[in-house]
Structures are given as C-alpha cells and as structure tokens.
Amino acid sequence: MSLTNKTELASLIADIQAVAESKLSTKETQQLAAFFPIYFEETEHADLRQFSSLDLFGAAMAHYEFAGKRSAGQVKCRIYNPDFERDGWQSTHTVIEVVNDDMPFLIDSISMLLSRYNLNLHLLVHPVLAVGRDKSGALQEIKRTEDRSLPLESLIHVQIDRISDAALLQQLEADLKRVMADIRLVVSDEPKMREVLAGIGKDLAKLKGERAVEAKEAVAFLEWMAGRNFLFMGYCDYDLVKRDGKDSLKIVKKSGLGILQDQGDKEYSASFEQLPQELRELAHLPQLIILNKSQTRSIIHRPAYVDFVGIKRFNDKGEVIGERRFLGLYTASAYQMSPKDVPILRQKVGAVIKGCDFVDDSYKAKTLGFVLESYPRDELFEIPAEVLGPIAEGIVSLQERPRVRLFVRADRYHRYVSSLVYVPRDSFSTEVRLKIEKVLMNAFNGSSAEFSVQIGDGTLARVHYIIRTAAAKLPEFHTADIEAEIARLVRGWSEELHQQLVEAHGEERGNGLFNRYKDGFPLAYREEFAVRNAVLDVQHLEAIDASQPLAMKLYRPFHRGGAAFNLKLFRESEPMGLSASLPILENMGVKVRDEHPYCVKRGDGSQVWISDFGLDVGGFGEQMAQDQVQHDFQELLAQVFARRCENDGFNRLALVAALDWREISLVRALAKYLRQGGLTFSQAYIEQCVANYPAITRSLVELFYARLDPAGFDDDKAELLLAAVRGMLDGVANLDEDRILNGFLAVILATRRTNFWQKGADGEFKSYISFKLESNQIPFLPQPRPLFEIWVYSPRVEGVHLRGSKVARGGLRWSDRMEDFRTEVLGLVKAQMVKNSVIVPMGSKGGFVGKQLPAPSDREAFLAEGIACYKIFISALLDVTDNLVTGQIIPPKDVRRLDPDDPYLVVAADKGTATFSDIANGISEAYGFWLGDAFASGGSAGYDHKGMGITARGAWESVKRHFRHLGVNTQEQDFTVIGIGDMAGDVFGNGMLLSEHICLKAAFNHLHIFLDPTPNAKKSFAERARLFNLPRSSWSDYNRELISKGGGIFERSAKSIPLSPEVKAWLETDKDQMAPNELIHEILKAKIDLLYNGGIGTYVKASTQSHADARDRACDPVRVNGNQLQARVVAEGGNLTCTQLGRVEFALAGGRIATDAIDNSAGVDCSDHEVNIKILLGAVMQAGDMTLKQRNELLAEMTEEVGHLVLRNNVLQTQILAIKRQESAAMLTTHARMIAHMEKTGELNREIEYLPSETQINERRLARQGLTVPEIAVLLAYSKISLDQAILATDLPDDRDFLPVLVNYFPKPLQQRFGKQMEQHQLRREIISNQLANQIINRMGTTFVFRMQEESPFSAADISRAWWIASRVFDAESLWGQIEALDNKVPADQQMQLMVLVRTLVERVTRWVLRNKRPFGSVNAVIEQYAAKVQGLLAQLPKLVPSERYPAVAALEQRIAHANLPQALTQVLARLEFAVPLMDIIEISEGSKLTLEQVAANYFQLGSTLQLDWLRDAITSLPRDNRWQSLARSALRDDLYRVHRNLARQALLDGAATETFAVQWLEKQHAAVEVCGQMFAELQSFSALDLAMLSAGMRELNNHLLA
C-alpha cells in the first residue's frame, strides 16, 4: 500500500475510533481500540471512503458481535439488510457476514457465488485474525496474524446489491452455507484423499505383465497429481454392476471423501445413470486410467467443470469390476508446464510426433512441437492420441497455408463437443466469435457454449469452443460443411457476398451487383441473415422498380419450428410499415409476430427497404406448408399491395379454402353483388360466412368454373357439383348463413356470361370482372327485375347496367351512393322504361361508383379517376356483348355464352357523365364494336342537344299545349315565369329563349337567386340571349340595369336577402328579409303562369310525403307540396322536378302538368334517332359506299329535320294527353280495368308507379274526377311498351306492307338515298314495332288496344293491321292534320273534340275491319280496294247527308262551327258518324250498275226512314261503366251496322237496281215499316233507355224486316 493510502486509511480509522469513543463506554473503547485498525487495514481505502465513518463503525461492531461466539469448526454466516434502529447502523446494500476458520478458497468461492446470482460486490472487508476463545467459543482476544500462538479465523464482510425479496435472501444464504461447507470438506479431507491416492499408486505399482508399462505411467501421473498439480475436491469408489440389464456404477459405502463424502441416499453414480447403455459399456474397456471432465461446474475456487481422474479396478480375469474416482481441478502449474513433463500427456505427445514422422529439427517438427505445447491443456488430458494426431498435423499445415479450419472432437459420453477454430487474426472480432458460436450451436444442437481465445504472433487466431449438449446423442454433422459455413462468416460478410454474387451471376454481373450493394446491408441484417440470404434478396431488390415497386419472399426460418413463417417485403424509398402491413396480413388469416425493417443503401445513393415480418399462421401451418398455397398466398399479397385485389376479410380464403387471388376476387365480386342486390348482411358477416364453410365456398367456385370456363367447362361436372353444393347447403343450420350461401349459388346459376377468363393486351387477366346475369333467376332481387343486368366489379370501380329488354338504351350515371347504387339505378331504369316508350329501345340504366377517388377538392384528379372508372365500366360491358361483323354475330373472346345472341348495347350520358360520350365511343371503336360511335349518342360526331335545343324544344311543346288550353298563345302573348336553372344550361338556357313573351319574374340555381318583379319581356329576352351566347355565364353576369324596380341578383350563400316592396307584394309576405332557402320556398309557392325547371333537383312533393320520400336531401329546405303551388303550368325540362305524387296533387288541384318523361323525352328521342341513323350509315360505310367524313357531313345536314321528327312525338304525346284529360272522368272505369289487367299480367306495378288504388279510384268516381294527366302519362307509356313488345313478338314487322313505318322514321335524305339499305337495318323489326305502337297509341289513346281485346281476343298484330287499314282507307292523318293546323285558331278544347271525332271513326272502322277482313292477307291490298272509294264518298257526305234532313248533323255542325274552322272540314267532321259504314256501302255496291254515290244515298235513306240513325245514337248513349256494358254496347252497335247492311243489300236486290231502290223497297215493306216505326216511337217516349230495351228493339227490327 502506498504511503498516501496508508495515511488516508489511518485518518479514516481514526475517524471510526472517534465515533467509537462517542458511542461506547470507556471500557469498551479500550477493549476495541486494537480491533478497528486490524479489521480495516487490508481493505482498499478507495472502497471505504464511499461510506461514512458512522456506518463503517456500525459494520465493524456488527461483525464483531456476530463473531462473539463460535464453536470450534463452526461456519457462521448470515445475510441481512442493516436497519439503524435494529442493528445500530445502516446501509443501502445487503450485507454478508462470515466468521470461519481461516482456509483457502473462501473469497474466490464467495465471489463465484455472487456472480452466479448476478450480484455486484460494493465492499469487501476480509481480515484474517488470530482469535482467542474460551471453551464455550466466546471471543477473548483478537490479534494480528503475526502472532501464530492463536488459531486463525477469517472474518468476511461483503456488501452487495440490495435484495429485499426474503425468499431470495434465504436461498442465497443457503447456497453460501453450502459453499462454506464444501470448502471445509475439501480442506479437511485433502490429507485423506492424498493417502488414498498414494495407496492406489502402490497397488498399481504391483501390476506386472501386459499392464506393467501402462501401470507405471499411471503411477507416475498419480504422483504428478500429488505434487500440487491437482486440487483434490472429492473421492469415491464404485463397483461396476449390472442392474436391470444395464451397467451401473454402485457407490462403495463410506468410500466418499471431500464433496463426495455425503451423497445422501444415492446408491449409484447419477451421471453414469444418465448415459445410454451403449456409452455405459465404455466402462468395460481395459484402459487403466481415465481422464475426463464431469458435467458439474465447481462452486469452489474456480468456476470450471470439475475434472475427474478414474482408476479402474480389475478382477483376476482382467475384467473391469469398479472404478476409483478423484474429483478436482488441475492447478495452474498443471497448465503451465510442458506436456512432455506430464505423465500420460508425454505418451500422447510422443505418439503424435512419431506418427507425423517429421525430420528432426525441421520447420514442421518445430511447428509440431509448438502446436502440442500450446494445445488446450484440458483437451490434451482427454483426447486420445489417435484423434490428436490428425488434428495436430492439420494445425501444422496451417502455418504453411493459413486459412479457416475447424477441428472437432466429440466427448466420449456425448456431453459436449470440443471445437478448435482457426481464423485469420485480422478478421477476428467479438462479432465473428459470436457468429461462429451460433453456427456451432446450431450444428451440434448445443445448449450452452464456452470459449477461450489464443492470439499469438501468427496470422491466425485460435478459438476453442466447448459446445455442451443436452441430448443423449449428438446429431449427425459434417465437419467440412460446418467449416465452410465458418469460412463464409470469417471471410467477412462483404467478401462472402462478393464471392457468392459472382458464383450466382457470373463475374461481370456479380461484380456489378457487388459494387452496387457491397456496403449496403446494415449490421442488423448481417447479424440476422447469412450471405446466401442476401444473394437471394439482391435478386428481389433488383426486381423492384417504378412499374413493380414491391417484391416479396415467404420463407420458413430454419431456427424456428412449428407454424412459423417469415415474410420479406422489398420496397423502394420507404419501408412497408407495420401499420400498413398489419391489416393486410391479418385479413389474410395470419398474425404478425414481429417486424424488422432493414434499410439497404445502394452504391448510387438510392435506398431500398427490406421489411421482415414474423408470421403466425395459427392452425393453418399444414396448408401453408404446401408450395401451391405459399405461391397463392404471395401472389394474393402482391395483388393487394398493387391494389388489384382488395384488402378485406375475403383474403383469408387463401388459407381457409386454398383459393388463389382471382378466385377470392370472384367470391368478393359475387358478395358485393349480394349486398347491392338486397341481402342486407354486412360485408364482415359475409366474409365470416364463407370462411366458416370453406368446402362450400370452394365448391361454389368450382361450379362457376365448370359452368363458365370457356376452355374447361364441363356440364356433367357442373351437375354433380350443383347436387353436392345443394347437399352441403342442407347441412347449414344458421338461416342467415344459408341465405348468403344460397345467394351465391343463385347468382352463379343466373350468370350467363363473364369476362373472368379474358386477358388484356399485356397478356394478364383483366383487373375487373363483369357478369351478365339473368335477373329473374335471382330470387332475392327486389322488383321490378330487368331482363338482364351486367354486374361489374374491380377494386377500383363497381357498377351495374340494367336492361329492360334486349334492345334498350339509357344513361350511365356516376353515382355517389356506394352502398346502394343498384337501388338507385333500379329506380332510374323504371323511369327510363316509361320515358323510352317513345323510342325504339326500351329502358336501360347503368351506374358506377369509384372506390379510390381522390378528394373532390382536387377537381382534376377527381375527374381523371372518374373517367378511368367510366372506361373500366364501359369496357366491362363490352367484354360480354356480342359483336356484329358484316351481319354475322361474333361472340366475345374467351367467354362461354349460356344465352342467345345479344349484340345490342347502347349507352348515353347521365348525371356525372354528360361529357363522356366520346370516351365511350372511343372504347367502342377500340373494341371494333359494330355500333361504332352510335354506341354512345351525343358525342362530337353526333347531335349536340344543347346546340339543337332539342330537350327544351320538346318541353316547350308541353308548355304551348298547356297554355293553349288556358287560352294563351305563348308565342304571341306575354306570360309570367319562375325558372330553375341558369342561362348557361342546356334545358333552361334554350327553354327561356323559345318565346319572346316570357316574363321571367324569378329564377334560381345553386349559386344565385334572380328577381325581376315586373320584367320587360323584350329587353329581358335579349339579355338572356346574350348570357346564353357567352362561353360561360351565371346570373351574376346579368345586366342589373335591365332588372325592374325591386328586383336584383342575390347570392344563395348570403345569410339573408332583403325584400323590396314589389317582391313582398308578389310573394304576399310582410317580411322585410328572408334567408335564401326560405325565399326560394316562397318563390315556388308564388302566383305565376309557368314554373319551368331546366335544372337539377326535386322541388315538389305531395303533402302526404316526407322530404325523405323525395330522395333529394339538397332540396329539402326549399321543397313545397303540390297543393301549395300557385303556378298554372309546370314544365319539367329537368328530371324529377316533382315526385309523381306531387304531380298528381298539383293536377288534382287544377294545375296543368304532365311528367318529366313526357316533357323532356325529346332528348332521348333525338339520341335514339342518332343511334339508328348511325347504324344505318355504318352498314353503308362498311360496304365502302361512304366515308366517315361524308357521314358526319350528312348527319349535320339533317339536324333540323331530325329535330322535327323528334318534336312530332312531343306534339302527339301532349295532344293525346290533352284529349285524355278531357275524357278522364268518363274513362275512369276503363282506366281502372286496364290498370287491374296490366297488374294481373305482370306488366305494371300500381304501387311502384304511384297509380291510385281501387279505393282511391272509387273516391275519384264519387268526386267525378278521373285520372290526372301525370297518371295517364304513365298508362300511356305502359300501353306503348305493351303494344310494342306484342307487335315485336309477331310476324307483322316482317310484313313488307309496313316498310313505310321504317322508312318514315328516318329523315328524307336517307329515305331517298338508302331506302334499300333500311330494309337490312339491324333494328328494322324493333323500329317498325315501336313506331307503329306509338302511332296507334298517340292517335287512339291508352285504352284502345285494351278495349279491343276486351271485346274479342284479337291479337295485337291483327288490331294493328286493322288500325293501319282503317286509318289509311279514310286518310285519317289528313283529317287530323287539318285539325292540328288550327292551333291557336280555335279553342284548344274544341280542337281536341274534333280530334276525337276522327279517332272515333277510325276506332269503329278498325272494329269493322277486324270483324270482316280477318285473316289478313296484304293490308296494302285492302287499302287499295277501299281507300279511293271511301275518300270519294267522304267528300260527298255533305251532299249525301244534308243537314236540313239530318237535325243531329245540323246541331253538331253548329256546335263545332268556328270562324277559323274551314266550312268543308266542318261539314265532313260533323258527318263522320255516317262515314263508319262506307266500307259496307262499297261491299254492297259490288256487282251493281249503280254508282257508289247512288248506293250510298239509298243506304242513308234507309237509315233515316227506318230511324236506324236514332237507334245508333241511342246505343252510343248507353252507359259503359263496366266491361260487360262496353261489350254489350259495342256488340249491339255492330249488330245494328250488320242489320243496316243486310237491309240495304236486300233493298238493292229487290229494287232491280233502280236509283231509288230504297224508296221502292220501303213501299213494298210498308206494313212492317209502320210496325217498326210505332215501336221506335214507343221507345222514344221513354226518358231513359237501357240495353235490354234497345236489344229487344233490334230483334223486332230484324224479325219484321229481314225474316
């Protein structure tokens, strides 16, 4: 100890003694004065100064008191936590105190104990003192050790980490006592063990013969041990015996010494018992002495495994009968001396040197000597010479060629493997050492490892590993393979990477990859993965780029067992974080156990990330072990990351049902349809359902394949699968799950086509799936069910296209109703069916939703994604649609069709897709679709609806018609208007320029409210025209100087809007201001002539409806009820201005309104003309007779005529509705019968169409009200649809006599140039059927065909042919045309009455044709037979039926007469009642020499004289409140015409064809005529006549005159 330390220590001791003086009595102080210096003087001052002198005093005193009494040989030790109140001192540490006889190994053994408990030592005070005690062991005196007159005792005070756990303190104290006891046993028994050793040596020395040499060396070794080269710790003698057929070492009783002295109840060597029999048999080997290691670590002196030296005992036969075993540790001298000086070892060394046979003093000989000298000594003791030789020789060779080498020796008892590893010194590090250890542990299935390192002056470092094993047998291993693995490790990760890259990719490519990645892999990666993993990972890293930003690898880590899998994801720029990956992987049915991201930096500075996920696949380990499932799992994951497959719970089917990603997408697509179709289960519930029944799910997919795979379909297999699935479904107990699974089955069975197997231009399957479904085959779908629908699914877009018939058209809507867009589209297609009654195709409608849309605030990106979704949707529709090439059906590629040919698919614009027609046509062209740009009307090479103003012009026909009946000519008289929209819009802008007499008092759109209380019609018209012609405009652009007093333009975003006196007066309000929505609400209720909607929104509902019923939340704040409207007329240029019930309520209150389907039908009609013209000209172009440019020029030339053709429908539809309005009360019963009939046949759903119930009809009847115009408009559409489809189903459209219907559909330039081509038009039959149905219903009304069929079961074709004959024979169109020319010249109501007169004529003639001309041959032949004659007679009617002789005619003439009604027309119309039998007259006259006029005059003479005319009028006046009354009335009238005809023929025959044959015949039949006259006089005397009376009169007439 240095002088300074001595001085400081003395000072500290003085402080302690000062404390003692203050705490102890004078006597005690004197008694202990010598104790404190000798207690602390050997302790490090640096350790002591950390404690206060008070605490050191306390510690010394506590130890002193603890040592106060001790028996001879007693070990005293305790462990406690000093407490000031209890112990008189304190410490933050736990204290160990020992009082023991002084002996070796105490401190080092205690330190070993603390190390085993991982406890830090903070203070060690260890004085060895000469201690005097009395007989009782009480302490008498303490002296320094220089005085050896007293026994020496060791006092040990240790402060360690604080332990508060009482159980742990107790365990530590027990272990401490065991250590102290073992030390005492070793020390006390050492002399005995040496005596035994000497005795054994003497015994061995007596051996003679073969064993003498071995015995001599053994004796020498035992003597060497005794020469302080071995620490004797224990000894025991064992007998080798047989027990239960196995060898055992039985302890010889009382032979144990040292730590083996007391082995308790043990009878046999425990370590020997653990060995398998094959290793126990080694005990019989005749080897005299065994040097080995035990399995137990020493707890004394040094924490090494205990060495044992076994000396075998033999019987007289030379058989091993036992073993005497010494346990202990070789001392330091044993490790330091040369092996040549150690018995036994010197023999091994000599044998090796001899075996190598190197030249004496040569380099190799010297090297060998060094190798053996420096060989791990423990190894030399154990290793056999025959094993040591090759190892030593191998080590020598390393001096010549240094390299990585591994030398392995397995313990004879398989308890451990000794491994000598030589590695380049420069490459050696702790990291390398640990990695080598890991390799060895894995190779030998090690449980623990120890090592020692030797680094000398050479180029190699030596590491000696002892790998301990727990198994009874070592695993098989190949040293060369382990060595190669170590070489790879040691070579350096980077160098190994270089080598393996070159091996894998060749020199050039390998060098390039190495330069790119040599410094890229982080340390964490290198520690976890071998270089061979990195080489594989580099391939994945090289595969990722912008087009494929993600790669992956699923693998099983070799160090994990069971269901452990790992997944590596490779990604550029940023890692695939756990938050992004976790939901995806969990949806796939696996749990993420852990995640390790590694950033790999490339040579060019770019970085890529490897994310390594530990996966727990739960109970799916067996499935995941299959290569196909692994492949499908990775493919699915890649598709999810690429967003080609959605991330949801269906993905677990990859593991649950072994489905690949496309099959999962199929299940998902069908599930999405189930939800859209009306199954209200959540997606999560459906996901769980299909996962609960993997066998059913798998079978459903297989059924889909068997039915629809174009290359692999198998109908027989499909039948078997269907039966199997139904059988499995019978076992599904849960009703909800049964509904879901049966829903899947129903949709699969209803699928007629799918593009599932189609591939794109890139050769990959398409990213979307379309299914063509026969909707009626799906029982869970709500009504009405379309004929077909196409369901489109992809992760990006979903959509549905519903079709009412094979030939149908309608818009495609960009919907925002993600959850129920099919419901939206279903409602729209129903309305479209009604609207399309005027055109060739029936109704269809489509809708799609974007699923990955950006925020709407980014308008450009939002629109771009919407267009992309639209393109996918259009493509998906075309994928399953037949094409036509030169008239031949070409089915879609890779599609199995389970339905007939179906080439007609036409779409149109709708909400959100107004400008998309060119896009759709571009796709059509790319597909080579036969419709070309007729596929989507309204494109750039079509009719511009806004430019034509066609929709507004059509709506304006309704406006004009309504106002004509109110006595207003909108084109010449001012009228007030409230408008919805702005001048930039098509329907509003065009509409508000269709009359210069519009007085627009108010208008609003989503931005502004326009008020002009007393507008100037002329000036405001000009200003509106200016706004319309601006590229873009809003109401804010309106010249405010032109607005009348009190008006203005106001923002709808304003909190409130001030009201001028003029506005207040108009709105009849006292409020000075209103919120914008309140103002609009009041404007809608204001008194006005016309409410015109050219915008978007539903503003009117019925008072019986809620706002929710209107399904337009945006308009909820402003909406009014139909009975609140004070407008005289409502025109719906925009769709859904009113709910249907709102319209009805307004109409019942006296308002004039039709429906949106009537008002804005011109748009859809124009589009249909465009499509059909393009189809016609497309065939011309295909034949090479026209270029696209020429076609487009021709289309443009015909614009105006197409407009006129379209508007003709608007004129006729509003005309028939006006007529029906006048007769609605009278026709109520007929309408009711028709509604009931159409409901019965399934053509109509009264509730869906908001038609009145039977109860409501009875209420109307009592109120003398009929159906309103909006209701009649619905019936009008359905009657057209019904007749259209009925005609189409017959041969009528193929009758060449009806070609004029087809020809007249087209503009005249086409009629003149392409009449022949029209006959080949793809939709020839549909055009004829539709146009003929429209002509008939527009002229004859909604109930005409129905009533005809009520009377007799005539077919629709026969009725149509009869009508065609009747209308053309009488040239009814000419008469109707003359009446129509009287618009605004005669009162509109009167004009409609005149139209009805002509209609009645045609109806009665139609009935005549049906009864007299069936079966029909050529209709043209019939027309030719009668037309000229009938029209000649018609012209003569005023002369044949003079008013002066026919009072009824005179009265009618007077009633219909008007200054603007031409007299000639008046005369004909007044006599149409008499025109009905003209065809009878013509037939009567056949073969007669009399002229037609003469026959006609006689015919009418008979009718007048016999009062048949009166009888006819009486029959017509009969009621027709039910079907039977109508039938009876009609039959009676037909009977009358037949009687009249027969009478005329009889008179002609009897009158010898004289000019006055009627008079002659009457005179001849004078008596009978007089009787009949009296009968009619009697009938005429009654105030009311009924059917029975008139029937009796008819019978009497027949009996008297024709009997």
Percentage of residues in strands: 15-25%
Number-wise, the strands total 39
**What gross morphology would you assign?**
elongated
**Total of helices:** 66
Strand order of the largest sheet: 21-22-23-24-26-25-29
Proportion of residues in helical segments:
40-55%
Low-confidence stretches: none
Average pLDDT number: 91
- Radius of gyration over C-alpha positions, nearest whole angstrom: 57 Å
Alpha-beta content class: alpha+beta
Task: Report how far the terminal alpha carbons are from each other.
Answer: 165 Å
* Main pleated sheet: 7 strands, mixed
Describe the protein's architecture and organization.
- With 1603 residues, the chain is of the alpha+beta class.
- Helix content is 50%, strand content 16%.
- A 7-stranded mixed beta sheet has the order 21-22-23-24-26-25-29, with helices on both faces. Strands 1, 2, 3, 4, 5 and 6 form a 6-stranded antiparallel beta sheet that branches.
- Helix 36 runs parallel beside helix 46 (1199-1223), helix 46 (1199-1223) packs across helix 56 (1388-1412) and helix 60 (1478-1485) packs across helix 61.
- The model has no long low-confidence stretch (mean pLDDT 91).
Task: Give a short synopsis of this structure.
It contains 66 helices and 39 strands.
